[in-house]
Amino acid sequence: MATSRDVFQAGCSASSLAVTLKKAPSPSQLKMPTGIAGLDEILRGGLPRRRTTVVVGGPGSGKTILALQTLVNGARLWNEPGIFVAFEESPEQIVSNASAFEWDLKGLQKSKLFFLDARMGPDMVKSGEFDLESLLAIIGEKARKIGAKRIVFDAVDALLTLLDDPSAQRKELYRLHRWLQESGLTGIVTAKAERAFAVGSPGFSNIQFMADSVIILNHELLNGVSLRDLWVMKYRGSGFSENLVPMSIGPAGVEVSAVSRIETQVPVTNKRISSGVPQLDEMLNGGFFRGSSILITGSPGTSKSTLAGAFVEAACRRGERALYVSFDESEAELARNLTSVGIDLRPHLRSGLLVVHSILAEGCSAKEHFNNIRALVEKFRPACLVLDPLSALIKSGGEEVAQSVSERLINLGKSKGITVFNISLLGSPDQQVEATRLQISTVADSWIHLSYLVLGGERNRALTIVKSRGTRHSNQVRELALSNAGISLAEAYMEDGEVLMGTLRWQKEQAAITGEGRVQAEVKRQRLKIELSSLELTSRLEILKREIKVQQAEMSVLMRTEETRVGRRAHHSAALVRKRGGIGDRAVLVRS
What we know:
alpha/beta; Rossmann fold; 10-stranded mixed sheet; 9-stranded mixed sheet; 39% helix
């Protein structure tokens, strides 16, 4: 590694040897990607190519890592050699510190990365006046030799603090800025800030006016949790995201949680998927909309995780991938506990359809959790995602940070068509309070609330659907019961305006069944009695009908007999008249 120690000791003021390495860029080449996905999204493509970017931050904010990562990505991904000029740490220290990121710096140093040790001690300033021209000349020659496209001046303020005269400091900063403009290199200059979101140390605040873009990093401790943020303060000639965004340092280096413009385009479908509980699907008029967000709220022990287990099991049975993020239980604990209610996740874990990611909420900041979950989603590409419990993120940075991260997780899932199943604890010990500390109930598409009902010495669970956007749903409170066979939902039993559950409900139902039996027996007895009476009346009616027929027959015989008698008498009278010498047929028979 080269050194500029003798250059500074000589204090020479050689003429500038900066070289123009490349012609002016075309409109399509105005951005230099950093390779840091979230950062490139914020910058709408990357840093300004062949211009200067200043990265400012306090100790431990990630300035050196971000700058070095940009060089490494340029060399690995786009075959753009780079130079790293170190004013504070030795190149050996920098390479050693970055070895945890698996960047293969030693391999890149052979041809694509060059580290220059530009440190100097306080005693060197005393030997005479100096400027940066000689150092910049050496760098320019090296850049030409390796064909460098990117360069980093790390901790330039460490060098300029040795200059007692503020005007001299400003002069050297302008010299550096002018050299970067003329060289054609894309430059990153890092500087310290003494307080959160400060632009730079006293004496170097004017650096923000010279640079084409300024990125400010912040690192602070909030409620015992380490939090990092990134803010793009300015970017000349380009649009960019002006909001503060979470940043973390992970295995790959700096990770920026940008809100992608793609994430605002949410796919919408009328297709439904099962909740894993048939009775709940009926209450939801067919299940959840695919790609929607579901919120389950309730106190501890109300079976929130059980519903989540049924949800992912149903997804795996459909052949879909499911990701279960647990902040409370390990994979083994979750699988074991759910078997007690007839939910067996072990086959799906073995098949790979289900992945359980278990991590303590306090293990890292809420912003780092977002980055980790986002990376898992990108890698695994699940159809269903469970966050259990989402409210645990409060332990990782406070309610405000947790709320922001929670909303972004929901938006991330919806933008990718993932059905997100969120669990959140109540914000109050009062069982009647249906609210969450994260205040995400307004973001969720469906909200299911679980509660306890303590009555008659028993604690029973109740389920109600608070809302379900775009679908007709039940407004009834259902009793949620768990057994070896699984989850069941029964309609609430009302007695004199009071909801009964558990044993009391069973007793009332048994009493109702017994009473119903008695009523049915009495109805049966009365029916038989009426049927018997009806049979008796029918029989009597049949006898009467027969008696009427007999009487009618007797009447008919009587009438015929009478007619015969009258006819015979008339004939006998006529015969008698003839025998007495009467006038025959004209005789009139006088009846006496």
